[in-house]
Specification:
The complex is a heterodimer of chains A (312) and B (412).
Chain A: H1 2-32, H2 39-57, H3 59-86, H4 90-112, E1 128-132, E2 135-138, H5 139-161, H6 163-173, H7 175-180, H8 185-210, H9 217-232, H10 237-256, H11 261-267, H12 277-280, H13 283-286, H14 290-301
Antiparallel strand pairs in A: 1-2
Helix pairs in contact in A: 1-5, 1-8, 1-9, 1-10, 2-3, 2-4, 2-8, 2-9, 3-4, 3-8, 5-6, 5-8, 9-10, 9-14
Chain B: H1 4-22, E1 25-32, H2 39-57, E2 67-74, H3 79-91, E3 96-99, H4 103-119, E4 126-129, E5 146-148, H5 153-166, E6 172-178, H6 181-197, E7 202-209, H7 218-227, E8 231-234, H8 239-251, E9 256-259, H9 267-271, E10 279-283, H10 294-304, H11 313-329, H12 334-341, E11 345-348, E12 351-355, E13 362-363, E14 366-373, E15 388-396, H13 398-401
Parallel strand pairs in B: 1-2, 1-3, 3-4, 4-5, 6-7, 6-8, 8-9, 9-10
Antiparallel strand pairs in B: 10-14, 11-12, 12-13, 14-15
Classes of the chains: A mainly alpha (312), B alpha/beta (412).
Chain lengths: 312, 412
């Protein structure tokens, strides 16, 4: 029981962080049709910016300023990079973001070095929030959840309750019509790209000190956010939310299961040959690969994802 | 008819030639991760080697008047990259290489060195291993061209299991490790040795996680907690250890940790007060082992490189032994150096290091210590500015640490 509750809490915390990352990605994809390979790089930039700001004026200003800075960088990238690449089609865009990820990583190497930086949790948030079955739950995890949920609510309100949200939604499906009505669609695209990257930046600000701020952090989450976007359904914010929590829980719970593949097959009545290396693998050992298996299964059985609106 | 340009080029060439011979050096290639998840470990090691070469060799006359120098080659922790970096080092004229991080990389390097030496008997290369602890490197896979300066996992687990044998508070043990040769071996020897010495200890769980990829160990800690373990055995190193202990601290896990590497590279900072009387390590040295020279060396090092803490005494031992072997052999030819290193006995600050001839495994005193509050007396120095340092619980003499080897060495 204790294990289930604690794992659930861990899974939800991790899932919410993943959602912050993937929400920006899925927003950008649904609006602009761009699969932004550099999305996780903006997550990394958020962490490094926040670290830099925290060494000057502390954590709290960084929480606000770092995502804005990342968003500004994102907007500039869209305005002067992607918009040009767009003229040459989707492949050019894809390659552009792919290259951008490498550029960002090298810039981080040059500016902050190859070694992890000492970006720490502020002392106010270092401690125990509550104790459940004598396992303590850190304040910082609660804080992460709060920020993620707050962001989800704000994003939902922005998209459905405000004028700009209406225009964004309209531009999603009928960009020509929106343009004909006198709205500056390219500027909306720039804002969405900036906003999406700012969300990734925010995830970096709170994820960087919860885990490790290092040049490899973008690559570490880069592939998993794509899994979420595919599983949730390309372009679906609700889908990304469900998929994030699902992947977060899959990862935490699979670590806890010590049963082997042989046991799993035995459950459905198939006996695997004893002594095979693969058959002896436990679910724990397979934990890192499970989200990808899940993605493959989704692509086979439900290509549009859990809540995706379209087939491709 | 000579052009001014030609004259200048000739002058430059002659300056380079003269300059080259005047600062002839003994160069050792340091092949270890200088980027990626273990960059901090690799960087700290390289600083240690450079400092040791400067203070312990170059300021004391060098090697036959030449300076000893270490150059970093980034293998990113990968076995494939290790071979490329070895090639690069050989192309640049290096005849000595050292590597420590990751038995996978060490296996790759020992194979590559053996192959190279078989094909190029006139340009042999020698491999000094300062930290890769896979026992096979000095048993089944032992090589004349490989010397290990750290105790291997079998020796370490022998010492730790002897200690556990006497500690009756241990009832349920959980083994967690990185999913590669080293983690597998720690698990294997822990189970084997405890089965022989303490049948009553129950192994309540055994987990291997991907190396360098897990950033949040909370799920693993939840599992350890659910298993009811009172003790955890881990061979983790670098961030894999710091993050594991940090997650244990966050979740309030009250189990004791037996480790190889909790003494440095950021782990003490990750533990802080939560590690008090909870974390135990086995090392060849720690800051509160009374020593003549190392204490000052370590304090100077910490002052010179803020944020990096002196950690590897075996790096100092290795540098001194290699320098002495070269001076004794009056040669920097790898084969002559290897022959001089074999069977060498070197008095060091903690006693004596003996390089056993039969398998090229160094034998040295080992210490088991526990993380305790610094009190200025037995725990004179704290670790990484935490206010907590290491207190010796047991000392294993050089003789007691020796185990038989199955090595059948091919000698050139």
């Amino acid at each position: 029981m204790e294990f289930v509750v604690i794992s659930l809490l861990n899974g939800i915390t991790y899932g919410l962080l993943l959602f912050m990352l993937s929400s920006g990605l899925t927003l950008i994809f649904s609006m602009m049709g761009i699969l932004n390979f550099a999305h996780a790089s903006f997550y990394m930039l958020g962490a490094y910016f926040a670290y830099q700001i925290s060494t000057w004026v502390g954590f709290w200003p960084g929480l606000l300023v770092a995502p804005l800075l990342v968003g500004a960088v994102g907007a500039l990238v869209e305005r002067y990079g992607l918009r040009r690449a767009h003229r040459f089609g989707h492949v050019a865009e894809l390659l552009f973001t792919f290259g951008l990820a490498f550029v960002v990583e090298e810039v981080v190497h040059l500016v902050w070095g190859k070694v992890a930086v000492d970006y720490r949790i502020p002392v106010e948030l270092d401690g125990t929030l509550f104790t459940l079955f004598d396992t303590s739950f850190p304040i910082y995890k609660g804080f992460m959840m709060l920020i993620s949920v707050g962001m989800l609510v704000a994003l939902y309100a922005l998209l459905t309750r405000t004028r700009i949200g209406l225009i964004i939604q309209a531009a999603l499906t009928k960009p020509d019509m929106v343009e004909a009505l006198g709205h500056n669609v390219p500027r909306i695209f720039m804002l969405v790209f900036g906003g999406g990257t700012a969300l990734a930046g925010l995830a970096g600000v709170i994820g960087g000190n919860a885990f490790v701020t290092e040049p490899g952090m973008a690559a570490a989450v880069g592939s998993i956010v794509f899994v979420i976007v595919v599983v949730g359904g390309l372009g679906s914010l609700g889908g990304a939310f469900v998929a994030s929590l699902l992947i977060g829980c899959i990862q935490t719970f699979s670590v806890g299961l010590s049963i082997s593949i042989t046991d799993v097959f035995a459950l459905v009545g198939i006996a695997l040959p004893a002594g095979s290396q693969v058959a002896r693998l436990t679910i724990t050992q397979m934990a890192p690969v499970l989200p990808y298996l899940f993605m493959v299964a989704i692509l086979i059985f439900r290509p549009r994802g859990l809540m995706g609106a379209r087939e491709s | 008819m000579k052009s001014p340009l030609f004259n200048r080029l000739a002058l430059a060439a002659s300056v380079m030639l003269v300059g080259g011979s005047a600062c002839a050096q003994v160069k050792i290639a340091y092949i270890d991760p200088l980027s990626g998840p273990f960059a901090n470990v690799g960087e700290a090691g390289l600083k240690g080697f450079k400092e040791a070469a400067e203070i312990l060799v170059n300021q004391k006359g060098g090697i036959m008047g030449q300076k000893l120098e270490f150059t970093g080659f980034d293998n990113k922790g990968s076995p494939q990259e290790t071979q490329l970096q070895l090639k690069a080092a050989i192309d640049q004229g290096f005849r000595f290489v050292t590597l420590g991080n990751g038995s996978g990389a060490a296996h790759s390097l020992i194979d590559a060195v053996n192959k190279w030496n078989a094909r190029n008997p006139d340009k042999t290369v020698l491999f000094f291993n300062y930290a890769a602890v896979d026992p096979t490197l000095t048993n089944e896979k032992c090589s004349f061209w490989h010397f290990r300066f750290d105790a291997n996992t079998e020796m370490k687990m022998e010492a730790i299991s002897n200690f556990m044998e006497k500690d009756k508070t241990i009832k349920k043990l959980f083994i967690i490790g990185q999913d590669y040769a080293h983690g597998h071996q720690v698990a294997k020897y822990t189970k084997e040795m405890l089965a022989a010495k303490r049948k009553d200890i129950k192994i309540v769980g055994e987990d291997l996680h991907p190396i360098g990829r897990v950033k949040d160990f909370a799920p693993y800690i939840a599992k350890i907690k659910a298993s009811g373990a009172d003790t955890v055995m881990t061979g983790n190193w670098g961030n894999d250890l710091s993050l594991l202990i940090k997650a244990a601290k966050d979740a309030g896990l009250k189990a004791r940790f037996f480790t190889y590497y909790a003494g440095g590279l950021g782990t003490p900072q990750a533990m802080g007060a939560a590690g008090e009387n909870q974390v135990i390590q086995l090392t060849e040295w720690h800051m509160n082992v009374p020593t003549k020279n190392t204490e000052k060396f370590a304090l100077d090092f910490n002052k010179k490189y803020p944020g990096v803490w002196f950690y590897y005494l075996r790096v100092n031992n290795m540098v001194q032994m290699v320098a002495q072997a070269m001076n004794t052999a009056k040669s920097t030819d790898p084969k002559a150096v290897a022959l001089a290193l074999e069977d060498m006995r070197m008095p060091v600050d903690t006693g004596e290091v003996w390089m056993r001839k039969s398998d090229h495994q160094a034998m040295q005193p080992l210490y088991i210590s526990i993380f305790s509050k610094a009190d200025g007396k037995t725990v004179k120095h704290d670790s990484e500015g935490t206010g907590y340092g290491w207190k010796t619980l047991a000392t294993i003499s050089q003789r007691d640490s020796q185990l038989p080897t199955s090595c059948i060495m091919e000698r050139p």
